[in-house]
Structure formats: structure tokens, C-alpha cells
């Protein structure tokens, strides 16, 4: 059982639940799981947007009788007994915790929500299911291909989402949101001292440039035009 948290105007403040028993009491009345063996993880957060709307986020990871793991997330207006505005069910790997995060992934000033939903091939990659807040509809949207892009973050230099995947080298993708999907528009692959720059057009990757660089490890770029790197 995790702490109850409140996300208000870009700041996350965490508060201990006054009653774990209260939360356990609410679970059966707010979620319908069918047959399950156990509640594996439970999280309860409050998100307050910059426009003053408040949402209760209730995430539960469950284990079924057949040992399948699922994450079920519900968003309610104001209270758990308020109107439910969104409900998502996502398959989950059995190893890593959900580690939910409230973060503005697309730079629109509104808090989005994500959680770890699968284990990546290497420990340096964190793969999350992304639920973006839609201020026009006052609800959250499941970005259905977010698991295809590890280590997501907001890139303020280019005003996009970017993804960085660690393997034998690195692959970085610069992404825009279209409807319920992430669409790449540029990519950089680095293998030792070789760097390959590509653009994504008409559903295909096109190589723009291949050049030699100093082999300094596994860079992540702030800007594909200047190859300025992140400062960490």
C-alpha cells in the first residue's frame, strides 16, 4: 500500500493515508475485477489541474486466479463516489512495481499520468503506459502505443515528447501526439562512434545523415538539429 498523494499545480505532495482499512473497504465497491486472487498493489492519488478541476486516481494491480497480472486505473471527479470519467485495463508484467507518476508529458501545463506496465530488455529502459489529460474533454486518454517508446520525457527545447532506448547502442525518437498515439518525426541511432539521423515520413524511416562521432557512451540529445545533449 502506497501513500496517498496530491498533485496540485505542478507540485506533488504526499500524505499518509489516515486509514488503510478505509481504502480497502472502498476497493470492492469501486472496481469490478471478476475472479482475482489478490490485490498486488494499490495507489490512490488526487490530481488538481491548473484550471481547478480535481480528479481522484485509483490504480490497482491484481493477480488473477491464473496468475495473470493486470493494472486497472479509474479516474473520478472530485471523490471516489463522484462521476467516473475514465477507466483503463492494461496487462502488466509480474516483476516490476507500477511506480505511477504524475508529470506533464506533452508540455500543455496539465498533469498526465503514467505507470510501469512491462519490463524492458535492459534495466536502463523504463516502459510506461501513458494516460494523457485532455483539457477539452476533461478526461484522460490512453496513448495506446506508449509502451513502444521507453524512457519517455517532455522535451522543452523542441516542444515534443522524446523517447530514449538503450540496447547495444541507443535509439532516440522525437514524438508528437496524434489522437491516441505517439507519432515519431525524427530519430537518432548511436552505435559506438557511428550516428545515424533519420526522419519519419509517410510511414517510413528515411536516413538523412550518417556521421562519425567521439565514442563517449550513450548520448541523449536535446535537439536533433544541433545535437546538444541532455545535461545528465
Label the structural class.
Answer: mainly beta
Average pLDDT works out at 84
Helix proportion of residues, in percent?
Answer: under 10%
Radius of gyration: 19 Å
End-to-end span in angstroms? 32 Å
Count of beta strands: 18
**What is the oligomeric state here?**
single chain
Largest sheet: 6 strands, mixed
Main sheet strand line-up: 2-1-3-4-5-6
Strand residue percentage: over 45%
Number of helices: 1
The SSE string, one letter per element, is EEHEEEEEEEEEEEEEEEE
Ranges with pLDDT <50 over ≥5 residues?
Answer: 1-33
Shape: globular
Could you explain how this protein is built, in words?
This protein is mainly beta and 232 residues long. 5% of the residues lie in helices and 54% in strands. The longest helix is centred in the first third of the chain and has 11 residues. The N terminus is likely disordered.
Looking at this protein, list some descriptive labels:
6-stranded antiparallel beta sheet, mainly beta, 18 strands, 232 residues, 6-stranded mixed beta sheet, single chain
List the helices and strands and how they pair.
Layout: E1 4-8, E2 11-15, H1 20-30, E3 38-48, E4 54-63, E5 69-77, E6 84-91, E7 101-103, E8 112-119, E9 126-134, E10 139-143, E11 153-155, E12 160-166, E13 170-178, E14 181-191, E15 194-201, E16 204-212, E17 221-223, E18 228-229
Parallel strand pairs: 1-3
Antiparallel strand pairs: 1-2, 3-4, 4-5, 5-6, 7-8, 8-9, 9-10, 11-12, 12-13, 13-14, 14-15, 15-16, 17-18
Amino acid at each position: 500500500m502506497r501513500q496517498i498523494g496530491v498533485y496540485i499545480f505542478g507540485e506533488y505532495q504526499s500524505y499518509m493515508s489516515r486509514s488503510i482499512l478505509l481504502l480497502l473497504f472502498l476497493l470492492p465497491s469501486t472496481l469490478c475485477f471478476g475472479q482475482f486472487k489478490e490485490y498486488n498493489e494499490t495507489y490512490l492519488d488526487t490530481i488538481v489541474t491548473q484550471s481547478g478541476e480535481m480528479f481522484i486516481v485509483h490504480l490497482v494491480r491484481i493477480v488473477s486466479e491464473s496468475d495473470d497480472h493486470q493494472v486497472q486505473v479509474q479516474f473520478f471527479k472530485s471523490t471516489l463516489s463522484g462521476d467516473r470519467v475514465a477507466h483503463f485495463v492494461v496487462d502488466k508484467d509480474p516483476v516490476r512495481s507500477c511506480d505511477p507518476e504524475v508529470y506533464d508529458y506533452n508540455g500543455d501545463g496539465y498533469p498526465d499520468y503514467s505507470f510501469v506496465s512491462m519490463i524492458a530488455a535492459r534495466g536502463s529502459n523504463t516502459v510506461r503506459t501513458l494516460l494523457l489529460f485532455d483539457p477539452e474533454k476533461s478526461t484522460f486518454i490512453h496513448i495506446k502505443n506508449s509502451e513502444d517508446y521507453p524512457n519517455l520525457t517532455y522535451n522543452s527545447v523542441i516542444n515534443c515528447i522524446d523517447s530514449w532506448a538503450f540496447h547495444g547502442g541507443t535509439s532516440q525518437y522525437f514524438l508528437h501526439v496524434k489522437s491516441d498515439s505517439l507519432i515519431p518525426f525524427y530519430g537518432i541511432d548511436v552505435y559506438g562512434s557511428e550516428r545515424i539521423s533519420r526522419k519519419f515520413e509517410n510511414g517510413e524511416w528515411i536516413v538523412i545523415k550518417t556521421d562519425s562521432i567521439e565514442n563517449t557512451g550513450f548520448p541523449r540529445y536535446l535537439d536533433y538539429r544541433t545535437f546538444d545533449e541532455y545535461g545528465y
